[in-house]
Every structure is written in structure tokens, then in C-alpha cells.
UniProtKB/TrEMBL annotation:
The reaction(s) this protein catalyses: L-homoserine + ATP = O-phospho-L-homoserine + ADP + H(+)
Sorted UniProt keywords: Amino-acid biosynthesis, ATP-binding, Cytoplasm, Kinase, Nucleotide-binding, Threonine biosynthesis, Transferase
Pathways per UniProt: Amino-acid biosynthesis; L-threonine biosynthesis; L-threonine from L-aspartate: step 4/5
Enzyme class, first EC level, given as a word: transferase
Protein's gene: thrB
Protein name: Homoserine kinase
Length: 327
């Protein structure tokens, strides 16, 4: 019989960028931007949420984290448990940086830890994919690094690629929300053979380029004809930034997930980071869109249980410790 611990579990979960251009619903990469989830059993359910926009979310048993945690307990044969949930998130909501995936993955990992880890990570991944509907964000958030996966409605086999050491990103986060649901509605039901062939080629090339560290190939490999052209009208400035970013130092640029965030890939040694950032801000600004930029590295570790004593340490310098002087 499975048992739930009385101890509080704290999990740190990375943000993620999905698609990476042509890999629609198949490619995702974890990013060095985080949410922290604290979970424990309680006499009465209590949900406390901290971080920008988190006050918009429900704090009763309809909360996504609560719902997902209960699924884990039910799968382990246990009845519904009142829960104390505290979540702090730096991942902006509904912006294309995997906030829903971070909530799902955080709840799965924390609830599983409360059960003593009865489910393997692979099982958590299958559950997460089913809940999110595609494996790209949840895979990256759970495992870290770059995840290549394919979901057929039953199973999602995957491969994790360690991101090239020199790969870094600049994201520009427009000051408006765009739900994944709305951005998926913009897509057509059918595609031409030439567009499908184009994307298969680019996506395959991108995976090979990332796996072999050939960053110079990103420029051509990141092109997409499956989702970005149809979503561009929802995001002022998007087409211009995706076309022109390479002339300001980017290796290539893409829509992050379902948007509206745009992500530019850059060599971390590049001296054009400030120029690229300014170009992205100026383009959005000329469209009348306020936006925030961040320089983010790939996260290599994925969701992890941290000890309660470490809960106050918000900025664990994992990347700096591991990457050293080589970015
Ligand atoms: N911490 C959280 N607790 C509860 N619900 C959350 C939490 N974070 C996100 N969500 C839910 O997920 C929704 C956002 O999901 P959506 O897929 O539209 O965007 P995203 O995940 O931020 O971006 P993308 O999937 O394009 O990367 C929120 O409106 C909210 O309903
Ligand atoms: N692959 C998904 C990611 C957003 O959740 C999409 O582009 O719709």
C-alpha cells in the first residue's frame, strides 16, 4: 500500500521553449528561468501563489497543481488528499515559456516525491504529455536540456540532447498574453506536401546541428512553414524579428512555443548580444508593444527536488558553477 509523507517537498522547475522553429510539438529546450513549488498534506486545502500574474489563478481545488497532484495520488491507489500548496514563479504566464508545463511537471514531481518516488520519471513524462497534449514543453521542464519527442496519443518516446556549451538565448516577452489555445486555433487543418517536406528537412537538420554542436547550421535549420507563418499576425513585429535577427548577431530566431515570446539563439561568446537585444526591443517598440528581454541559458537538469532548508536560496548558481568561463 502506497503512503504519503507528512514532510513538505520543494521542487524547482525550469521554464521551457517549445518547437525551436520547425519542430512543432516535437522539440523543446529547458531555460534558466524557474518556478518553485512547495507541497505538503494538510487538514484543509490551501493554495498560495506568488509571482507576476499568479494572482489571476484559482486558489481552490480547481488549481492545476492541485488537480495534477491528485491524479498522481489516484494512480497510486490513494484517495483525494487536502493539500497545502505554495508556488512562486518567475515564468511569465501565457507567454510561450511553458508556464502550464512548469505547473504540471512541478505537481507530478512533488506528488511523486511525497509517495517516495513510486513512479519512474518516464511514467511522469507520459502523464505530463497526456495532460499538456504535447510533449515538447513538459519533456524539457522535466528532464532539462533539449528534448526530441513524438506523441501519438498513447506514448511519447524521447531522446535528450545536451545543449551545445556555447548556446545561449535572448528572449523578448511582449506585454500581452496569448493562450496556446488561441495560437493553435490559428493553424490550418491541412498542409501542402512541399511545406511538410520543408519542415521535416529543417527539423531533422536542426536536431543534428544541436546534437553535433554545429551552431552555424541553426540559421537555415530553424526555418518553419507549419506554425509560425500562421501565428505571425497575432504578434506585431514577429516576422521582422525572425527575418532580421541574424543580421544583429543571432544564430537564428523563432517563436517561443505558442508565443507571443520570441527567442533568438546566440553564441554566448558573441559581442553582439547588446545589439541583438536592442534590435528586438526597438522592433517591438516601433509596433507600440512594450516588452521585457532576458538572456537565458539552457537548463541542463530539469525539475528537481530541493531540500526544505534550501528553499530560501532563489538563485542556485548551477549554470555558472558548471559552465565556468566557457559561458
Ligand atoms: N502555477 C500555475 N498554477 C496553476 N495554473 C497555471 C500555473 N501556471 C500556468 N497555469 C495555467 O496555464 C495557463 C497558461 O498556459 P498556456 O499553455 O496558454 O501558456 P504557457 O504554458 O505559458 O505557454 P506555452 O505553452 O506557449 O509555452 C494559465 O492561464 C493557467 O491556466
Ligand atoms: N507545441 C505547442 C507549444 C505551446 O504549448 C504549440 O506550439 O502550440
Amino acid at each position: 500500500m502506497n503512503k504519503i509523507t507528512n514532510e513538505t517537498v520543494v521542487v524547482k522547475i525550469p521554464a521551457s521553449t517549445a518547437n525551436l522553429g520547425p519542430g512543432f510539438d516535437a522539440l523543446g529546450m529547458a531555460l534558466s528561468l524557474y518556478a518553485w513549488l512547495e507541497l505538503s498534506v494538510a487538514n484543509e486545502t490551501e493554495v498560495k501563489l506568488y509571482g507576476a500574474g499568479m494572482d489571476e489563478l484559482p486558489t481552490d481545488s480547481s488549481n492545476l497543481v492541485y488537480q495534477v497532484a491528485q491524479r498522481v495520488f489516484a494512480k497510486a491507489g490513494l484517495a483525494e488528499q487536502p493539500l497545502k500548496i505554495s508556488m512562486y514563479s518567475d515564468i511569465p504566464l501565457t507567454r510561450g515559456l511553458g508556464s502550464s508545463a512548469s505547473a504540471i511537471v512541478g505537481a507530478l514531481v512533488a506528488a511523486n516525491e511525497m509517495l517516495g518516488g513510486v513512479f519512474a520519471q518516464e511514467e511522469l513524462f507520459q502523464m505530463a504529455t497526456e495532460l499538456e497534449g504535447h510533449p515538447d514543453n513538459v519533456g524539457a521542464s522535466l528532464f532539462g536540456g533539449i528534448i526530441v519527442s513524438s506523441w501519438d496519443g498513447v506514448a511519447a518516446p524521447y531522446v535528450k540532447i545536451t545543449p551545445p556549451q556555447a548556446l545561449e538565448t535572448i528572449v523578448i516577452i511582449p506585454d500581452f498574453q496569448l493562450s496556446t489555445e488561441k495560437a493553435r486555433h490559428a493553424l490550418p487543418e491541412q498542409y501542402s506536401k512541399s511545406d511538410v517536406v520543408f519542415n521535416i528537412g529543417r527539423s531533422s537538420l536542426l536536431v543534428a546541428a544541436l546534437a553535433s554542436g554545429q551552431l552555424q547550421l541553426i540559421r537555415s535549420a530553424i526555418q518553419d512553414r507549419i506554425h509560425q507563418p500562421y501565428r505571425a499576425s497575432l504578434i506585431p513585429g514577429m516576422s521582422y524579428i525572425l527575418e532580421q535577427a541574424v543580421h544583429h548577431g543571432a544564430l537564428g530566431a523563432a517563436l517561443s512555443g505558442a508565443g507571443p515570446t520570441l527567442i533568438a539563439f546566440i553564441d554566448c561568446h558573441s559581442e553582439q548580444k547588446a545589439q541583438l537585444q536592442q534590435f528586438m526591443v526597438d522592433t517591438m517598440s516601433s509596433e507600440g508593444i512594450a516588452a521585457t528581454t532576458m538572456t537565458l541559458a539552457p537548463d541542463q537538469f530539469g525539475a528537481r527536488v530541493i531540500y526544505k532548508e534550501e528553499q530560501v536560496v532563489r538563485d542556485l548558481p548551477f549554470m555558472e558553477l558548471i559552465k565556468g568561463d566557457d559561458c
